[in-house]
Amino acid sequence: MSRLKIALLLFILGFIFIVLDIPFTTNLSYPHKYENSNKVIGEYQYYNIVSNYGASCTYKMLDDSKSKSTEPETKANQQPGIKSSSPKITKVIDKVYFENVQVDIFNDFAGFLFILIGCILIIKCARQFKLAILTSIAGLIVHGIMFALPFIINGIDLVNASFFIGMIYLAINIVTIYLVAAGLLRMIPGPWCRDERKWCKILWFASCASQCLATFAFWLGSDFGALKTVAWVIFGFTIFIQLAFWYSYMRTKDYIKRTYEKYYVKTNN
Questions:
Q1: Which percentage of the chain shows pLDDT scores above 90?
Q2: What percent of the chain stands above pLDDT 70?
């Protein structure tokens, strides 16, 4: 098998591993319990650590009424037919708990590693592969930081740090996939295969959009079963888009091979 075929196979595996997330709970426990405080009552903060680390929580009812004073009612409130304002009860997070360590069956670390090796194999074919090597290394580092956070910090610091780093990580995913896709399209020279090039661009954009949508749906879906089901449907659609992208790209295999031989076969001879 030539290095071109190996690189394309690694790219396909890398795309799938990065896009598809299937969490698996191990028998290993985190070294400490989650440090609860009254600061973490925001739903969105909680959704983030549920998605990343498999946390769970209990809820409490909070009186959010603005009129909590014990002062006598005004004359307007004492008039017949006018009732005093009833308390506003809000459901908020009470305690957060960590379960066992959660890992991804289709680990993103392996996905970035596949893409890194694939870019090295055909780095001469397009300058985008050189940039993709850098973003792949960045993805490997950030992925390691995300996994190690619960072992280093705790409480509200963990929630805020994982949200901030998680957004950076999502951006690295999108940029890496973009660079690889752009590099592959550069291997189709001149005006050839216009339809395939057009569909590859459309499918790449649809894949990135659905990946972002599925990520946020999973974050919010940690407390809404129906929304979590929708997130799985979106992820299935994303995988279908990925396969359609590679089908469109492989239709140009003769031109891809020609570009590859230009930089490697003739050079080596």
A1: 17
A2: 80
Name the token pair of 227.
Answer: 């929304």
AA letter at 59:
Y
The pLDDT tens digits of the residues spanning 69-93 come to 444 444 444 445 544 455 677 666 7
Closest to 22 measured CA to CA, from 101, 113, 112, 103: 103
